[in-house]
Amino acid sequence: MDDSPEKIEKLKGRWMLDPSSGIIRPALIEALRALQDGEKDWERHLETVPYTDEITTGRDLRGVDFSSLRGMGLRYMRDGFLDLRDVDFYRTHLEYSNLYRIHLENANLYSAFLDGANLRNTHLRDAIIEFVSLENAKLQRVDLRGFDLCTVKHLNSVDLSQVRLTDAIVDREQFLQPNGKYMVHNEVKAMEEHARNESTPGIFTHFEQAHEVYLTLKNNFINAGKYRNASWAACKEKRMEKLLLWHHLRQGSYKGWHGVQKRMEYVGYSVFNALFMYGENPWRLIWWAVAVMLACALFYPISGFTLTAAGHTNVVSYGGFHSIGAAVDGLLAALYFSVITFTTVGYGDVLPVGFLSHFVAAAEALSGLLFFGLFVFTLGRKVSAR
């Protein structure tokens, strides 16, 4: 999409008989009047408008400032803005047009091109918006509640903050960015500033807006039964909270004991993300549990342990591994001790020896209690959400 300022100004200027006078071309007024009257071939009025030959399919209304068309003998709503309810904009090119507060209720926008258009506060209730293109369009304060947006194109480039999306149907695939990552446009803007390592006022706004969008998307995905998408949105929501907190801490927004609490909160975000993705992937805890048991099994032979049930009196340690067989037996016994310690079974047939083994055993037992508690909690929460 050619969005150079020169191109946009050229598109907007062609609707004026004389750009300096501000006089609108009569052809545009006639085309809009035909639209309001329901004429199927309303585009015939635009044959004398320059640059229409650039469009090979559809109708060409690129760059029209609909919001400024007042007192032109057209139909208007009580708020003074153009009444385009029920009009047929099928496959119409409306790139860079200004549709601020225009009434498009029940309008047919099927496969319309609204790239770069200003749709702030536009009234779209019951409009047909399947396969509409919205690349870099401005949608602030648009009510899209209950709309099926799964066919909308370029939703990944739209600022969705302040857009009412309750019960709107969307899919994660619509937020695939050119870099291969799934991100809403607000996060893209925030991460661009984050990459420059700047804590500007704008970055706080972008992260807050991204958090708001992900929260709405999460609720929509849950209501639609798209639980995998809901997990993605929930993780993104928490990540926005974490990065927003990081920039607040970097800027020194919190002082004294409150600052200490916020730093601990940031550490908690990092730990919970590493352990189980903020509660959205309880199965990751199993791999962490296996890793903890294997790591502890390698620590026990450093200071040693004894196998009391087998009548052993010698301490099993790395110093006693004089052969491969002894090393295998010793490490398997250490793994057994690690598993029963982590699961808090504690048969009593293996005893730690030395300070290091006692410390590792105590830490592993506490870790086991924590891991099992977290696993049951997160798994139960995900099951109940379904």
What does this structure look like?
By secondary structure, this protein is mainly alpha-helical. Among the domains are: 5-143, Pectate Lyase C-like, CATH 2.160.20; 284-385, Orthogonal Bundle (Helix Hairpins), CATH 1.10.287. It has helices at residues 5-13, 26-36, 185-195, 201-223, 227-251, 256-276, 284-303, 324-342, 354-385; strands spanning 16-18, 23-24, 59-60, 92-93, 305-307, 350-352. A two-stranded antiparallel sheet has the order 1-2. A two-stranded parallel sheet has the order 3-4. Strands 5-6 form a two-stranded antiparallel sheet. Strand 1 and strand 2 (23-24) form a beta hairpin. Helix 7 packs antiparallel against helix 9. It is elongated, with a radius of gyration of 32 Å. The model has no long low-confidence stretch (mean pLDDT 89).
Content-based structural category: mainly alpha
Provide a count of the helices: 9
**Assigned CATH class of the domain at 5-143:** Mainly Beta
- The helix fraction, in percent, is 40-55%
Give the N-to-C terminal Cα separation: 41 Å
CATH topology of the domain at 5-143: Pectate Lyase C-like
Detail the poorly predicted runs. Answer: none
Mean pLDDT across every amino acid position? 89
Count the E strands: 6
* Sheet of most strands: 2 strands, antiparallel
Indicate the CATH architecture of the domain at 5-143.
Answer: 3 Solenoid
Spatial extent as radius of gyration: 32 Å
Sum up the overall morphology in one term.
Answer: elongated
List the secondary-structure elements in sequence, H or E. HEEHEEHHHHHEHEH
Strand order of the largest sheet: 1-2
Strand content: under 5%
